Amino acid sequence: MAERTPWSLSGALKGMFGRQTIDETTWDDLEYALITADFGSDIAEAIIDDLREKVDRYHTTDPRDLKRMLRESIDERLSKFDTTLNLSERPAVVLVVGVNGVGKTTTIGKLARFIGNAGRSVVVGAADTFRAAAVDQLATWAERAGAAIVKPQHEGQDPASVAYQTVERAITTGTEIVIIDTAGRLHTKGGLMDELSKIRRVVEKQAEIAEVLLVLDATTGQNGVQQAQSFIEHAGVTGLVLTKLDGSAKGGFVLAVQERTGLPIKLVGQGERIGDITGFTPHVFAQNLVGS
Question: Which listed site, 35, 112, 138, 248, has its alpha carbon 20 to 30 Å from 157?
């Protein structure tokens, strides 16, 4: 039995845009493809309405024109947000937040390598002190990344004090970038947000916080956004990191999550290796999603 090829938006569009003309079947198939790719019905409908207007305006019936317009429409929507990582301060302090299980710890290791490859020195702070396993895992990833790490001096150490010591070490040693891991779950959401607020206050006594990056698991779609809503509302999030992103299948979530949260995607992770993280470039993403 032949192995089934996984569904992809670009694959679905290839057949659609290979037809002779644009008709109502084209629009129905395009809307179905966008919804299947996790754009969400409201965004899919808005894109379709925009494309219908452009097709009428330019009096075209060529599906190749529609494909180009679709790519440009997605690029334009994604480009409304500034996806640049703000790491100009010295030290530049990055807090990484998110619920447990989204790939937060591995993302920190990948980010440390990503920044290190750009010639910047990095120290990681293991401020998720509520889980000993998280500290050990982070230490492993920091070592792989070639980054220094500040760990709790004893079990149950106050997370804010670990964050303070990490920034203090960066200032003392002249380390350029600080990445601080934080807890993903406490007994209450209020307690977790209070803990993050305390970390912020303690860190800001020594240095400004450059970024608060929220890690989301792209495979959980809109459920992931709902899970992370408390972070978005209370943690001062400045940007998103999407993990486990299969750009060919559910890539529409990228556009949907930016529009629904009002936050830019700054980094994308697409694999398990330490080098599997990239900065987010809307033009490239739109081209890969739709096809050239």
Answer: 112
